[in-house]
Design goal:
Layout: E1 9-13, E2 24-28, H1 38-51, E3 55-60, H2 76-82, H3 84-103, H4 105-108, E4 115-120, H5 122-131, E5 142-146, E6 163-168, H6 177-188, E7 193-198, H7 217-228
Parallel strand pairs: 2-3, 2-4, 4-5, 5-6, 6-7
Antiparallel strand pairs: 1-3
Length: 237
């Protein structure tokens, strides 16, 4: 875990040689908007993506630890209100990252219209906000929400991207109902969404092995990428 980030950065993981397919993803680690789960959500995610032929950009967005007397509340609603300013900063950093990656698409040998965002926990909350953006310049082409929630009240518009959603039923921090709600919002809006909830996995399972069925989610996610055309079947393994 890292915190006290005042200058946002992007760490680039080039797609494995001979497997690059033009798809790119920005990675938003979790950490309750007060820190970053840099290894499990960030670097390990980027390593997996690059091994599949996707160029990954891990965003070290601005965060700071709680100040004296600062409370994030007990309920999700309290958390949403208490972290509204922090979340806006994360979304702003992520939007700038989207602009940067698209404007440097040739440099990184990627397609500007094949850019996704994957977020975990708090990063997933910011990812949903990005997917709701009305400006296509700062909206990803596809989104991935892992053990997250939708904190904004608005429904996705017709231009919102397809979304992949994953969570565990036994998550003690963000109940899986929050992921179900994201799926329901996309479904009600007539937009593509895929939801996977595993019985066990807790919070923050990432791409690590836990000897549980949740270990299979990367393969399911890979299949979704193939179905959406962001990963060629020949590159899937």
């Amino acid at each position: 875990m890292i915190t006290n980030v005042t200058v946002p950065t992007l760490t680039v993981f080039r797609a494995s040689q001979g497997r690059a397919n033009g798809t790119a993803m920005i990675v938003l680690p979790g950490g309750s908007f007060r820190a970053l789960a840099w290894d499990v959500d960030g670097m390990e995610t980027a390593e997996w993506l690059s091994s599949q032929g996707i160029t990954a950009f891990v965003l070290k967005y601005r965060v700071r630890p709680p100040q004296a007397g600062e409370s994030f509340g007990a309920s999700l609603e309290d958390f949403a209100r208490a972290t509204e300013t922090r979340r806006a900063i994360v979304v702003a950093d992520a939007q700038q990252a989207i602009r940067y990656v698209r404007s440097h698409a040739r440099q990184y040998a990627i397609a500007p219209n094949r850019l996704g965002v994957i977020g975990f926990s708090a990063g997933a909350m910011a990812t949903v906000d990005l997917a709701l953006a009305t400006d296509p310049a700062v909206r990803p082409n596809f989104a991935v929400s892992m053990y997250g929630a939708a904190l904004a009240g608005e429904m996705p518009g017709r231009s919102a991207p397809p979304i992949f959603i994953g969570a565990a039923q036994d998550d003690p921090q963000l109940p899986a109902d929050n992921s179900v709600e994201i799926f329901q919002r996309w479904t009600k809006a007539g937009l593509p969404a895929e939801l996977h909830i595993y019985e066990r996995g807790g919070h923050g399972f990432g791409f690590r092995r836990h000897d549980l069925p949740v270990d299979n989610w990367p393969g399911v996610f890979r299949t979704w990428l193939v179905a959406r055309g962001y990963l060629a079947p020949s590159q899937s393994r």
